[in-house]
Task: inverse folding
């Protein structure tokens, strides 16, 4: 043992990149004790001190506290056990930081004041049970009829967000915006009216059939792609295709009353917040985004209004 190389604290500092003050501090805490002292009383360290200090530096860089580090280097506990415990603690910190980042990002993007930032922070802190309660309340308002039965159970499931246990910052941001939509009384009323109109369009005998929005979406897509002017004559066949199809599905004549009914339904459906809800839902649930319907609905509303007779005075 007497033939082993001994390092001064200065030499250790040069070899490890740590400062003399830091190494002395670790030595005083018993984490890297000196092997012996020189005749002049200076601390000297054996060759294992370099490896020990490098491990200490790595663990400190990873945020492990000094008490745990000492237990590791003294072999009182396995490194793997400390690493696993610290990894879990870091995961909790990451979740908290993601929530904070999302709140700050949304607040900065909107130029929020103190009250709105506080509200965003509270939404981000909701438990899974509280989030579910908020969403269930919204979906019940929209889809549950007076007999307390869901109008369309499958639709309710497809409209339900499920924020993961380990959400990304983007998913948390999406949740904050979706939660605000769920609490917006005007959006609730709009979606409820749309659901009731959808139910009325299906209140006819026969197999399930598309509603007004689906008919318009499918018929208008080529017109949008071709950039057809909705007020021009080239749009006439598109209008005729939609009204004929919708009249057939509703078992009604294709007349002025049917077009007024169609206008009423599409005016309610022409709410970009519906598309936004579905986009946010896709982000939260990890689904692919669908095709927005408001461009097609807006195009058709403009086309149909241009062809409606002027009201008599």
Result:
């Amino acid at each position: 043992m007497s033939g082993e190389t001994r390092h001064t604290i200065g030499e250790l500092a040069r070899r490890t990149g740590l400062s003399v003050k830091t190494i002395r501090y670790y030595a005083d805490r018993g984490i890297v004790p000196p092997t012996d002292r020189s005749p002049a009383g200076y601390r000297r360290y054996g060759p294992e001190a370099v490896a020990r200090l490098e491990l200490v530096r790595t663990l400190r860089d990873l945020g492990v506290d000094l008490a745990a580090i000492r237990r590791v280097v003294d072999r009182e506990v396995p490194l793997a056990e400390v690493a696993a415990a610290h990894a879990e603690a870091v995961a909790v910190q990451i979740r908290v930081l993601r929530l904070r980042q999302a709140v700050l990002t949304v607040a900065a993007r909107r130029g929020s004041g103190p009250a709105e930032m506080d509200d965003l922070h509270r939404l981000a802190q909701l438990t899974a049970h509280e989030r579910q309660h908020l969403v269930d309340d919204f979906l019940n308002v929209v889809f549950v009829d007076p007999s307390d039965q869901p109008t369309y159970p499958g639709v309710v499931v497809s409209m339900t967000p499920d924020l993961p246990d380990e959400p990304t910052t983007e998913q948390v941001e999406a949740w904050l915006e979706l939660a605000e939509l769920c609490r917006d009384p005007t959006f609730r009323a709009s979606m409820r009216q749309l659901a009731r109109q959808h139910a009325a369009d299906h209140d006819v005998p026969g197999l399930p059939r598309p509603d007004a929005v689906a008919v318009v979406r499918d018929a208008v897509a080529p017109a949008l792609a071709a950039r057809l002017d909705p007020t021009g004559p080239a749009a006439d066949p598109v209008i005729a295709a939609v009204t004929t199809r919708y009249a057939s599905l509703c078992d009604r004549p294709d007349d002025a009353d049917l077009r007024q009914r169609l206008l009423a339904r599409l005016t309610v459906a022409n709410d970009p917040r519906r598309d936004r809800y579905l986009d946010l839902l896709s982000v939260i649930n990890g689904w692919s985004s669908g095709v927005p319907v408001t461009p097609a609905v807006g195009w058709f509303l403009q086309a149909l209004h241009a062809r409606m007779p002027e009201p008599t005075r």
